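hiii so um. not sure if this is the right channel but i have a protein structure encoded as tokens and i wanna go backwards to a sequence. like what aa goes where. can anyone help
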């Protein structure tokens, strides 16, 4: 018998298996970082994706197209907040489609519809957080302002302020430790409360003589906003404004092996699948890559995966190609491209090490998510796992398995359950992330690169 077991196996660091891939990964991640910097919100990410694919020859799809031919590439913009990319395959479409679906919304602070106020000569915005955040992480982080606001005349203005060095940033305050005796008694969940997530936006009053205006600092902010964007206070009711961390994506570690950036859940899977989709030329099977919205609040709304927008597009394809959409679904496979919680040695108690994903050990295949007894989970079949693992191994993609954490310690879900309800074999495939849902999340460049290789192998698969 040999020194090593021929039967047992362990998941290993990518560099033990693919020794020379760091340079490729590092180069790949330069594109990723610039994608992240121009895609902080779902609207901006939609614009970035559409700009990229237009430059690669994708045409806008519409249901009145009479004929679809192998090799043609299309994009569909769903309300400026989600994108669908289609590459027509050589095989009849009812033999099945390769779906890759990621989400491009991330946890953040949205403005309330009547957000502007002044308190003791400081002006603030009231926020309502979006998605699962640990509220105490958001004070004293530089924030930038993004979104769209409509005016009385029906025109709108897109706002992106605080991303450039020269532009102002915004910030939520926290209480100094010297005076935090009472605050320190709060639980971590209550350390900062939802109604304390108030963003500081100004401190200078107007200096008009004889004015009857009471809130002089607020008035000054309104005048600045009016000058910059032509908006008035009521216009916040017809707006979607999001505040997100203002810093750019950055390398982490002496070895620059990792990246910290806002919103890597799930734009790390969006970027890797986008690059794979673009390079998916003349495939056998038709591919449909979706970059969806609203995952972080349960996939509801007509830009989320619990709506019919993707299945309506499949209906359109089926109509044009004169096939039945149900035959497309039952023969399709979907990679629900979402991140997994990486094992964190500092918080080892929350994880079951053997079944957690680890940074640098490759693309994560997550069989199931859910709460307690797998509640609310898709739970991919052994057949689907076998198919995807074989594909990874045949394509030299380094892969690992992952659960969300210890049983009964919490839980979560992805869009997998909304896809599989359409009778599609579905499995979660994505990148391991440290500090998920924090203002800055950490990923490994090697994992990002191998996740891109995984999506590419899947799309080019016959
Ligand atoms: Mn996610
Ligand atoms: Mn998430």
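sure thing!! here u go:
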């Amino acid at each position: 018998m040999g020194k090593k077991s021929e039967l047992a196996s362990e998941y290993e660091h990518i560099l033990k298996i693919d020794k020379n891939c760091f340079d490729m990964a590092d180069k790949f991640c330069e594109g990723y970082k610039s994608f992240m910097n121009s895609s902080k919100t779902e609207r901006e990410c939609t614009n970035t994706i559409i700009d990229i694919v237009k430059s690669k020859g994708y045409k806008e799809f519409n249901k009145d197209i009479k004929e679809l031919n192998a090799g043609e590439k299309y994009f569909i913009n769903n309300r400026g907040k989600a994108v669908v990319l289609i590459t027509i395959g050589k095989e009849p479409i009812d033999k099945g489609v390769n779906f890759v679906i990621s989400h491009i919304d991330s946890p953040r602070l949205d403005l309330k519809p009547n957000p502007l106020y002044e308190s003791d000569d400081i002006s603030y915005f009231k926020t309502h957080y979006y998605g699962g955040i640990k509220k105490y992480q958001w004070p004293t982080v530089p924030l930038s302002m993004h979104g769209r606001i409509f005016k009385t005349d029906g025109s709108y203005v897109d706002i992106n302020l605080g991303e450039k060095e020269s532009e102002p940033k915004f910030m939520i305050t926290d209480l100094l430790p010297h005076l935090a005796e009472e605050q320190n008694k709060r639980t971590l969940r209550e350390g900062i409360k939802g109604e304390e997530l108030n963003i500081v936006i100004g401190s200078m009053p107007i200096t008009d003589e004889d004015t009857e205006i009471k809130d002089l600092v607020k008035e000054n902010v309104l005048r600045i906003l009016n000058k910059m964007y032509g908006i008035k206070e009521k216009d916040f009711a017809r707006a979607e404004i999001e505040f997100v961390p203002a810093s750019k994506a950055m390398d982490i570690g002496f070895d620059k092996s990792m990246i910290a950036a806002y919103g890597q859940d799930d734009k790390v899977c969006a970027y890797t699948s986008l690059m794979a989709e673009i390079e998916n030329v003349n495939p056998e099977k038709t591919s449909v890559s979706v970059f969806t919205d609203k995952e972080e609040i349960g996939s509801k709304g007509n830009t989320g995966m619990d709506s019919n927008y993707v299945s309506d597009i499949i209906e359109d394809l089926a109509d044009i190609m004169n096939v039945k959409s149900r035959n497309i679904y039952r023969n399709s496979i979907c990679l629900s491209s979402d991140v997994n919680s990486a094992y964190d040695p500092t918080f080892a108690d929350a994880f079951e090490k053997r079944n957690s994903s680890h940074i640098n050990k490759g693309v994560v295949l997550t069989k199931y998510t859910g709460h307690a007894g797998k509640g609310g989970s898709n739970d991919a079949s052994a057949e689907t796992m076998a198919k995807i693992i074989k594909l990874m191994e045949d394509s030299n993609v380094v892969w690992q398995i992952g659960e969300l954490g210890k049983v009964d310690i919490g839980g979560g879900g992805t869009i997998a359950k909304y896809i599989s309800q359409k009778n599609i074999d579905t499995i979660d495939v994505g990148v391991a992330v440290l500090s998920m849902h924090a203002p800055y999340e950490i990923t490994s460049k090697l994992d990002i690169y191998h996740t891109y290789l995984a999506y590419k192998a899947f799309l080019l698969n016959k």
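oh and The two ends are 39 Å apart (CA to CA).
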